[in-house]
Amino acid sequence: MGFSIEAVRGQFPALSLTDKGRRRIYLDNPAGTQVPQAVADAVSRCLLTTNANLGGYFETTIAAQSVVDEAHQAMADFLGAASLEEIIIGANMTTLTYHMSRTLGRALKPGDEIILTRMDHEGNVSPWLQLAEDLGLVVRWLPFDEKSWQVEEATLTGLLSDKTRLVALNYASNLTGSINRVKSLTAIAKRAGALVYVDAVQFAPHGLIDVQELGCDFLICSAYKFFGPHMGILWGRREIIDGLKPYKCRCSSNGLPERFELGTPQIELMAGLAAAVDYFAGLGAAAGEGGSRRQKIARAFEVSIAYENPLAQRLIDGLSDIPGLTIHGITDRKRLAERVPTVSFTVDGIVPETIVRQMNAENIFLWSGHNYAWEIVHQLGIPAEQGVVRIGIAHYNTAAEIDETLESVHRVVAMLRQQRS
């Protein structure tokens, strides 16, 4: 048993919507995916039947606590965490990272060093930069290699010192799609005594995460990038977070993970989060896995990767046929496993937004701009005010959609060139 694209697409109501009779092609997935019906149903059911705050003794508050506990356990299974107490759920990745950066900052002092990459989304850069400015920390920049499109171990090694306190890495780039070798990079940083904070937002929809195997101290992702509601999830290693003193209300709980989760939780969204994880488990079950939820999730990624990668290669091959078009990322089919199916490009003499506007008018949804990959565009010398055209595949897209998108890119580029001549 494997992957049925028809069965998958049948679970996503948005995929059947039309505008004035015109189909939609969703290739804006790196910015946020569509959701299965089960996720929407879970949110609605929670609001209608378990709508109460936590901490009481009546039926709805007890049921609401069960929703919260299940969301934490679901994400522990999704990430391979040792316990649901290691799972911190909040508004979004950026907000959680700002919060955790300030908490970690309590133990830092002027002259301490942190390492940031030129490959990260700004949500894993600005919180640390501003912390460094506040505390007098030294920031060391870790570039990515423009041949491999990855952060190289030797480059990280050269930046580490006995003053390095934290290394912030990304698992996969939201612009180039490149996957970093997080396990080996983490091992190098840990040998130097540094904490490791990993942004896995772009990797989480496309590959199985095992925080125990990676060896990092923190890992963060966003549910709305893997078919869930708008929430951020931060995993923290128990022995690390147990000793941290977060900024919080004096009278709020000191338990884990509650002391890191400020204010009233978004309980209805947590219901949707658990449903999103169960969607992956359902994919694994449909592919023949009968074990635990974690095992089903692992199987789901096996079959979805096997489906996504040929689509990504089809897209890369088709774009590579256009003269003057540059793909910013891995294009070697032998290295397809080293990237997620997010493909960004520029075309000589054409502003990316002009391409995207034309394609959006054809109901092909994609983005232009820097997409918060601020350091990447600067390292590559791409004008930040223009950025790139970004196409992002999810496992509900089809080969026919990729072919139609390629036909549109070819036609739009030719038309824009003719207008310039």
TrEMBL record:
<dbReference type="InterPro" id="IPR015422">
    <property type="entry name" value="PyrdxlP-dep_Trfase_small"/>
</dbReference>
<dbReference type="InterPro" id="IPR015424">
    <property type="entry name" value="PyrdxlP-dep_Trfase"/>
</dbReference>
<protein>
    <submittedName>
        <fullName>Cysteine desulfurase-like protein</fullName>
    </submittedName>
</protein>
<dbReference type="InterPro" id="IPR011340">
    <property type="entry name" value="Cys_dSase-rel"/>
</dbReference>
<dbReference type="InterPro" id="IPR015421">
    <property type="entry name" value="PyrdxlP-dep_Trfase_major"/>
</dbReference>
<dbReference type="Pfam" id="PF00266">
    <property type="entry name" value="Aminotran_5"/>
</dbReference>
<dbReference type="InterPro" id="IPR000192">
    <property type="entry name" value="Aminotrans_V_dom"/>
</dbReference>
